[in-house]
Amino acid sequence: MTLRAIVAACCVLLLSACATLPDISQSRSPCQLEPGGWCGFVRDAAVEAFPYALASTNAYTGDDDIFAKPGRVLQRIEHLPIAPEDAGKGFNYEIFNQFAPGSGSDAARQPVARILAFRGTDLTGLSDFFYGTLRDDQIELALRYFAAEKARLGTDVPWIVTGHSLGGALATEVSQAYPEVRAYMFNTSPFYRNEVRANALRRTVFNERGEILRRFARSNDPPAANVFTINCEPRRGALFKHKVRPLADCITWIAAYASPDALAVVKANGITKPYVECGPPEQTHPGPGVKPAAPCIHNSLRKDKDGKEIKVKDKDKADGNAKPGGD
Prior knowledge:
327 residues
């Protein structure tokens, strides 16, 4: 999804943004005796957010990095047909039923929420760059299709909107238009137009530290929301960090320290340990309830194949590959 990041970054200064609540960044040293070295508040947020990270990833229908097995907490359902003229503007989304964690047999399960996941920038062309960033067409489409799906499927369970990158901006717009709707965004684009703060606490953002759009977001604040910033892949460059699948993998891995459903997704999809977490790369997930026998010190240094630290040059810093300090 590299092109998505490049396209989005090209026009960031052309658009306005909103104010934000303070970032809630992952702490390191005080949490070394926590499972995986992840602080309790981050694990709790990951347990809450991982189904929406999965849904946001699988909104990229047809891509080769969606979750083939998104777990039993999600069930994709058919959405309304998208008019050809709307699809031509790069607009798309998916809808999922969400089930309670650890719920009973599949036949007896009832949804506890309905998720509409907006797709971010697609690779098939520049239409969503033009209609989703330079213009407000996709915002209008997101609001229109959400209203139509809500009328079609009803309000017997709460609606939740989610999305990655441009999809996160569309989810922001819907949550601002419908204050009762909860929203979860991942590496969200700062391209949106409203400044409504009344329901700020009903929006949650997860960003990978150093991903490309955050450079621009320093001058254009992210939406009013609780913002969690995690550093799963300190070795990687800013474009890679913008991808949704690695972020969703990391969030699900963290959630698996407390959620059997998340652990099932980790195992079913072969999710590997985030680089930053202590331990060897091939380390398997120990599952919920693990008690660390020794401090889990995060891998925050770039090393060569012999395990020696690589000195960081100014060019590396400019490329987003700088050796991170404690978060």
